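Entry:
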Amino acid sequence: MYLYIRMFFSMAVALYTSRVVLDVLGVEDFGVYSVVGGVVTFFAFFNSAMASATQRFFLLKSVIIILKSSV
């Protein structure tokens, strides 16, 4: 139940703040703000995915080296 309340509250805050930001910035600046936010979000996701992939690669590479040396 707590998760539903938190989700509803987050959605209400996001809808309210988007209206306020749109009124303050105007249509064109809000578009630029949205594009920049999307790009930043994309690169944050990409950075996280690449960090996980790199960590997994090095882990598997080290396990293969250990297995080869023990044989």
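The chain has a mean pLDDT of 93.
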